Protein 1
Amino acid sequence: QGMNFIAGYLILITKNEEESFWLLDALIGRILPDYYSPAMLGLKTDQEVLGELVKMKVPAVAELMERHGVMWTLVVSRWFICLFIDILPVETVLRIWDCLFYEGSKIIFRVALTLIKQHQAFILEATNFPDICDKFKQITQGTLVTECHSFMQKIFTDPGSLSMATINKLRETCREKLLSQG
């Protein structure tokens, strides 16, 4: 689904098919395992992990989502599956990818949490399900994301502490929950 966008961007960036192949291999095999498998269990798990992180770091938004029955997969699946391609400006996406290859998958959570935290008041204005979905589309636009240097600084400060140990523990719990639901 989103892998074609990623592969295309990698080829455009590297201008080398072999380098693109190995970068894609690192993404699929090590950084984002099971994102692009038939069941997409890694992707589904990470969307649930984001929901748990939002409960911890931006509880008012988590409560709004829960109150209106909005599943995280409805508002962030494109963010995660396409790694923000076609969601954020190209220059910002490329900076995010640099960090993703260097620091690993926690960068995706940092970006998502920063978008949500920076726009918390705007999101909380939503009064119904469609309005929430619309707000999540709108928060990926504007000066916050077009000024990529300051945005990248924010992703490392706004969400606060976010260790891989915490993410891995949440992944384990969320994965078990998803598997038990069938």
Protein 2
Amino acid sequence: VGHAVLAINGAEVNGRLTADGKDVLEFLGNPANYPVSIRFGRHRLSSNEKLMLASMFHSLFAIGSQLSPEVGSSGIEMLETDTFKLHCFQTLTGIKFVVLADPRQAGIDALLRKIYEIYSDFALKNPFYSLEMPIRCELFDQNLKLALEVAEKAGPFGPGS
């Protein structure tokens, strides 16, 4: 529940259509297409939904830094529940990177630093990127996707476990 088909045989799926315009249900209904590799995951958020979640987290982050018993607290670094951990990395310039992960997942701090490195290399050095605007850069997307795949392959207990 709450998951959608993200890719079939490595081809991205957008809604009910594959990247080449085929209907997903028709493709899966045809026995000639088997065996098939299907990647599931959460549905993609719209730009408005992303902005709404970011603004809600920013408010919680500010409240957390004000309510913290720690003097000079910079805000939320990690929020842990039974089903997920929310990790936040805030740069010296105030940019926040947020990752939701399995509670057992190791290496999230290294992943956050890698995401910041990718952001610095491919967004900030891009002359067409404007601060506080959505990042529209193919190299950024490719490198971020690669970093997430590496972290995902490390497994829920990190490398060497």
